[in-house]
Amino acid sequence: MDSEAKSRQRVAKQHRGNARNGGEEKIVGDKELSSRKSALSMVACVLAGMTFGFAVEKGRVFEPAAVRGQMSFSRFIMLKMFLSAVATGMVGMSIVSMLPFGKSKFDQMRVKFFRKFVGKRGVLAAGLGGFIHGVGMSICASCPGVLYIQLGTGTPNAVLTLCGALSGAFLYGMVEPTVVRLSKPTAVARSNTLDQFLGTPYFVAALPIAAMLATCVFALELFQPWGSDLTQPNSAVASALELRAWPPYLSGMLAGSLQGVLVLTLGDTIGSSTSYAAMASLVLVTGDMERLSPYLSGYKRSPAAWAQVLFSVSSVLGGFLSAWFSGALGTVPGVPGLAAYLGGAIMVFGARTASGCTSGHGLSGSGILFLLSFVVLPAMYLGGVLTAALMSAVLGPV
């Protein structure tokens, strides 16, 4: 009997060992799978960022003359590329939302997007932040997403705009509790998006709007052909890569096509201004300093924020490669240093107040039909137009 009992104990011990080893193997396997997914996500983020930077450079919307020209209604390539990108993004995300394997990712992406705003940002903060953002755009002739391409193409004083942008992000981090307290909404909106308000599926509302935006681009092109807005014409004999400029609607379609890809691969959309908050958070090097701004500290440890930094830095490389292929590196005039720094600070402070910029609210927020983005965009444009008009009256044509 003693030998039988010992035999049973040995068998039971062996089973426990096998179970433990099996559990350890499963944990190791899960970690390997997670690491593989993280690596693939990083690759997707880098490739998407490079493509975005390439498209923006070829569309020429990174040129300070294009930004200020749009605000003064003398050039329209920026608006053409923007509307084309939004329309294409709507089509791509509509397709994703209809796919069996894409609908859940699309829904999760929108929930994550809304989480930044619900109970935190109301119409006041959205409108005021958008207006301030537009003011800064006209002063520095840039925007948070375009700035990275200006860095990659060697646009003069782009580094000063970056310094200003980081200063604006840091300043907002210091006053964020006060801004939220003064502008926090008193009621929760019943609907976050236009399709929710209408009670229809996303694609039913998005596709007709995309068609209308495409029609607007077509009308703008008839009114003022894109070639007339170029600061330098294309070479008569050049390959597609060597061309200095592509039609803004083609560049916009390339940039907008990234939206569906990003939703499927990263569960996210295009954005830029969060990257400045993440980089500004690195100044908080001690625990005591982190307590000065819980807002910035949160970005310091946010994988999503640093994924946006990776996307943005990759767009620098994309812009550089595009300009290098066409021999356009360092050929675009910049703005004065003071305007670059101050405008960058005002621009990102406004973007953080609105919790989004021309990329986050413009390309992505309007693309997913987020109602608050339709408050930010007109306010942003109003701030930019009024500032451009004031600058023209005081300083002459900008």
UniProtKB/TrEMBL annotation:
Q: Where in the cell is it found?
A: Cell inner membrane
Kindly indicate whether the keyword DNA-binding belongs to this entry. Answer: no
Q: Which GO terms describe its cellular component?
A: plasma membrane
Q: Which UniProt keywords apply?
A: Cell inner membrane, Cell membrane, Membrane, Transmembrane, Transmembrane helix, Transport
Listed Basic residues bias regions: 8-18
User: How does the entry describe its membrane topology?
Assistant: Multi-pass membrane protein
Q: Which residue ranges does UniProt annotate as crossing the membrane?
A: 39-56, 76-101, 122-151, 157-175, 196-220, 261-285, 305-326, 338-355, 367-395
- InterPro entries reported for this sequence: Sulf_transp_TsuA/YedE
Q: Where is the signal peptide?
A: none
**Region Disordered: what ranges?**
1-28
Keyword Signal listed: no
> What is the name of this protein?
Uncharacterized protein
> Where does this protein come from, organism-wise?
Branchiostoma floridae
